[in-house]
Amino acid sequence: METLFDKVDYNADQIQVLKGLEAVRKRPGMYIGSTGIRGLHHLVWEVVDNSIDEFLAGYGDKINVIIHEDNEVSVEDFGRGIPADIHRETGLPAVQVVMTTLHAGGKFDNNSYKVSGGLHGVGVSVVNALSEELILTTHYKGYKYQQKFKKGVPVDDLKKLGKTDRSGTVIRFRPDSEIFNAVEFKYDNLAHRLQESAYLNKELTLSLRDERGEEVKEEEFQYDGGIKAFVEYLNTDRDVLNEDIIYFESKPDEYEVEISIQYNSGYNERIYSYANNINTVDGGYHLTGFKTALTRAVNNFAKNNNKLPAKISSLRGKDVREGITAVINVKLPEPQFEGQTKSKLGNSEIRSIVETEVYDYLSLYFDTNPELAKKIIDKAVQAVRARKASKKARELTKRKTALSSNALPGKLADCSSKEAKNSELFIVEGDSAGGSAKQGRERKFQAILPLKGKILNVERARLDKILNNTEVASIITALGAGIGEDFSLKNLRYHKIIIMTDADVDGAHIATLILTLFYRYMPELVENGHIYLAKPPLYKVTKRAKSHYLYSDQELEKFRAENGNSSFSLQRYKGLGEMNPEQLWDTTMDPENRVLQRVEIDDDFEADDIFTRLMGSNASLRKEFIFNNAELAEKIDV
Questions:
Q1: Host H or E run for residue 233
Q2: CATH 3.30.230.10 region(s) of the chain?
Q3: What is the pLDDT of residue 235?
Q4: Among the CATH numbers 3.40.50.720, 3.30.230.10, 3.40.50.150, 1.20.1180.10, which is that of 226-387?
Q5: What topology does CATH give the domain 22-221?
Q6: How many angstroms separate the Cα of 52 from the Cα of each of 49, 61, 81, 504?
Q7: What is residue 637's predicted lDDT score, i.e. its pLDDT?
Q8: 529 contact partners, CB below 8 Å, separation of at least 6
Q9: Which of 96, 78, 99, 76 is nearest to 87 (CA)?
Q10: Which of 9, 75, 151, 227 has the fewest CB atoms within 10 Å of its CB?
Q11: Is 502 labeled as catalytic in the residue annotation?
């Protein structure tokens, strides 16, 4: 009799052992985060971080990055070079072991590198594995060596090319197009990251050269002011409370702590934390220590000097940090990062070190600069009052929801599916287009939320005012995930949120207002790829009773070129409301035919600056932006 065990075709032959760097090529996302644009640029950061580690160890003060014509990248440093002598355990040159073996490197003890970011020893081998071709040149102990690899595998043996009077490493690689969605590097992405590294290492010079195109682009980054200059740069377009930036550095034992702070009149909190030059975007114990120290120092000054109103006994951390721009830069031996992408620092001892150093310094600073301390307290008190008002607004919304038979906004036409991962929400400009969308949609998984006009510009408002805006409240309620500190992705009702506006200036403005709301108060929606822009057609052309939809002026020019003088009718859509439900479904909503643009952030600093310029209260910044970018506008509706 055949048993269940006889039917199971699963034995030792099905167990795969991935050798060498095969695991990296099989699951690249585990090592570089993604195979999209961020993952592509992460290859460069892995190599650059190794070169910065050499600088931190005291070797070499310049790093050159070049984007070559064929989208290859080379990174050159002037450190010690990767050792070329024979590795005792493997019998291979050490440089080959480093390039072809995960967790092979000189960063597992404190002898070669006292401080480093590339602590796992997988960075450069991962770059090698995910490159179609990589050429490594090392200048080591008076000799120049070179070796070539393809997809992580050595093409030849390490070659000794002769004597040299320099030291350092050059790694030139071409990303594998079989791995990455696109292999074209973005100059601005690389420039901003190298600029950031230069701020963090004031004695280091980083250069970027782009040899693609007719004209070579080249920049060099070096800042004597370090992170103090960094904060000044971040607050360039803001109305600051303290012209003199708060700055200090200390070196308790084997640690280094460097802090820079400046407040502005805005409502957003911007704190960037770094550990051994790694941007810890998810924070960690160094960030926790900083926040605790800042809150304590402000509260102690306020209480000791009777600066708090009668009804406010103390200030919360969130209130104290409103309008802050700060950079925290720590260096420590044996950092414990969470994951290969190193987004969070896990060394618990750094919390008390940072907290003690920051609290002691700020306590003295506020005592000697009482006017600034009072400005910070006054701003925090206003934040407390706004927070209490927004809490009342939230509670009122909850009461209304509980009392109403339908908890969702009245204008929302919900979908029948309760599975968030399969559901879509179209945020549509205007009742007319909303009506067409409601009739033309697939009711099973598509929900429609029409908006009346332009929503509140949240860049210029605190949360209490935002929550009292009807259109914004409708979006928040429809999504079901909350806002600000209360936001939670697990409660999100739709995993695809599509902004659908007219293809004109007003439509772009409305889309930007909605994106500002998401970016400032629900950033996780953008970070996790939930936000999309619909792309409705600009034209409908009809020839011999057959219609085609065209989505750009370029497509129209191509159509005219291909059809010559033959007769056809042309309709220019001025708005979504001009389409009937069937047309709207066919062109903009049907998953089989539609064109969607996913909203992603390639550069956090650039994105923050753009929203400040375009949506902030300083009109001169918008005017400057328009003048500088006017040539990019191909066609404007008037």
A1: helix 226-234
A2: 226-387
A3: 94
A4: 3.30.230.10
A5: Heat Shock Protein 90 (3.30.565)
A6: 5, 9, 13, 46
A7: 46
A8: 598, 600
A9: 96
A10: 9
A11: yes
- In CATH, which of 3.40.50.1100, 3.40.50.670, 3.40.50.2300, 3.40.50.10490 is domain 407-537+596-632? 3.40.50.670
Helix (H) or strand (E) holding 454: none
Task: State the Cα–Cα distance between residues 490 and 400, nearest whole angstrom.
Answer: 23
232: annotated active-site residue: no
Of 109, 145, 124, 277, give the one whose Cα is nearest residue 202: 277
Active-site annotation holder among 237, 269, 442, 504: 504
Coil, helix or strand at residue 376: helix
Question: Which of the following is catalytic: 53, 502, 603, 608?
Answer: 502
Q: What is the DSSP string of 80-122?
A: S----SBPTTTSSBHHHHHHHSTT-SS-SSSSS-SS-S-TTS-
HSE, side-chain direction, 13 A CA sphere, residue 160: 10
pLDDT tens column, 558-589 = 988 888 777 888 988 878 888 899 999 999 99
The widest CA-to-CA distance across the chain, in whole angstroms, is 89
- The ranges of the chain annotated as CATH 3.40.50.670 are 407-537+596-632
Pair 204, 63: CB distance under 8 Å: yes
Lowest mean pLDDT among 103-107, 125-129, 418-422, 451-455: 103-107
Residues of the chain with CATH 3.30.565.10: 22-221
Backbone phi, psi, residue 144, to 5°: -105, 130
Q: Whole-angstrom Cα distance, residue 54 to residue 79?
A: 5
pLDDT in tens, 364-418: 999 999 999 999 999 999 999 988 888 776 665 555 554 444 567 778 999 999 9
The catalytic position among 76, 424, 429, 586 is 429
512-524 exposure pattern, b = at least 16 Cβ within 10 A, e = fewer: bbbbbbbbbbbee
Sheet with 546-550, strands from edge to edge, namely: 546-550, 539-543, 569-572
Options 506, 527, 555, 578, the catalytic residue: 506
- Confidence check: pLDDT of 638 > 70: no
